[in-house]
Amino acid sequence: MSKDTYILGMETSCDETAVSIVKNGKEILSNVVASQIESHKRFGGVVPEIASRHHVEQITIVIEEALDQAGMSLKELDAIAVTEGPGLVGALLIGVNAAKALAFAHGIPLIGVHHIAGHIYANRLVTDMKFPLLSLVVSGGHTELVYMKEHGSYEVIGETRDDAAGEAYDKVARTLGLPYPGGPHIDRLAAEGKPEINLPRAWLEADSFDFSFSGLKSAVINTVHNAEQRGETIAQETLAASFQASVIDVLVTKTLKAAKQYGVGQVLLAGGVAANRGLRSTLEKEFGALDGVELVVPPLSLCTDNAAMIAAAGTIEFDKGKRGSMAMNANPGLDIESF
Ligand code: KG4
Ligand code: ZN
C-alpha cells in the first residue's frame, strides 16, 4: 500500500490569507480562510498595500489554526505548497516567504503552485478528474478556458483580452452604487429583473475562444449615463439582469463549443465567479442536455480563493517530483503552461 501524502497549502495572492491541509490531494483535513473584504470595502476594491499588511498579521495565526484543526504537527507534513503567482506581488511575497521559512526551518520540501491551477484543482476535492477535460476559470483576475490532457498539464485555449469576468462584475456594480465585491450583488439583483436591455456580446473571431468584457462594461456605463441625461432611471434589476445575460451567454456558448471541439468528457467550473447562480444554472441546463460530458461545479467555499485548492494542485506537482528551492520568488506574471 502506498503511503498517504499530507500537503499544507498556503494562499496569499489577493485578499484572503488561507492555509489548508489536504490528504492525498483529495481529502480536506482543514481549510482556514481569513478574509480581508471588510478592510477593502470602503475603498471599492483591493488596496495592495493593505492586503500585504493583513497577510503579515494573519499568516502565522492561520498556519497554526490549520495545523490545529487537522490535529497535525509540521513534522508530519510531506510538503508545503504555496501560490507563487499570479497575483499582487506584495501579497504573494508574504505567503512565499512564510512557506520558505517553514520549509527551511523544518526541512520540509517546498512546492510553488500557479493560482489558476489551484482554482482548477478545487474540483478534485469534489470528484475525480477525468481526462481530457476542459475548465472554465472565471475569477476576479482571470477568465480562461484551460484544456488538460492529464494531471498537471495545462493548455490555455482561450483567455480574456481585457477585463476578467469578475472585474467586469465589480466595475458594473460600482457604477450601480453597489458595495465591493459587486459580483454577488449583481447576481442577486439579476434574479429579480428581466434582461430587457440588449447589451453587446463580444464573440470576437469565429474560431476564437478568447473573451472580452470591457466593451460590455462600457455599454452598461453609457446606458446608465444616457438615461441620467434624459432624466430617467433604469431599474438596477433590469441593468443587472441584462449585463448578466450577456456575460453568461458568451461564457456558456464558448465553453460548450470548446467542449465539443476538444472532445472532452468533463467540464470543470472554477474561480470566484463560479459562485454566480445564473452561470451555474445555465451551465447545468446546457450540459445536462449534452450527452457524454460531465459538468462539475464545486461548492461556493471552494470556488473563491482558498488554500485547499493550492494543496490539491501542489500534490500533483509533488507526485511528479517537482521541488521548489530557497530561491523561489513571488512571480506575479507566472505562466500556467510552463510553471
Ligand atoms: O477567485 P476569486 O475569489 O479571486 C480571484 O482570484 O480573483 O474571485 C473573486 C471575484 C470577484 O470579482 C467577485 O465579484 C466575483 O468573484 N464573484 C461573483 C460572485 N461571487 C463572487 N461574481 C458573480 N456572481 C457571484 N455570485
Ligand atoms: Zn482566485
Automatic annotation (TrEMBL):
Its EC number is 2.3.1.234. GO terms for molecular function: iron ion binding; tRNA N(6)-L-threonylcarbamoyladenine synthase activity. Substrate binds at V137, V138, S139, G140, G141, D170, G183, D187, N276. It comes from the Bacteria. Gene3D superfamilies: 3.30.420.40. Binds 1 Fe(2+) ion per subunit. It catalyses: L-threonylcarbamoyladenylate + adenosine(37) in tRNA = N(6)-L-threonylcarbamoyladenosine(37) in tRNA + AMP + H(+). CDD domains: ASKHA_NBD_TsaD_bac. GO terms for biological process: tRNA threonylcarbamoyladenosine modification. The keyword Oxidoreductase does not apply. Keywords: Acyltransferase, Cytoplasm, Iron, Metal-binding, Transferase, tRNA processing. It holds the Pfam family TsaD. Required for the formation of a threonylcarbamoyl group on adenosine at position 37 (t(6)A37) in tRNAs that read codons beginning with adenine. Is involved in the transfer of the threonylcarbamoyl moiety of threonylcarbamoyl-AMP (TC-AMP) to the N6 group of A37, together with TsaE and TsaB. TsaD likely plays a direct catalytic role in this reaction. PANTHER family: TRNA N6-ADENOSINE THREONYLCARBAMOYLTRANSFERASE, TRNA N6-ADENOSINE THREONYLCARBAMOYLTRANSFERASE, MITOCHONDRIAL. Belongs to the KAE1 / TsaD family. This is tRNA N6-adenosine threonylcarbamoyltransferase.
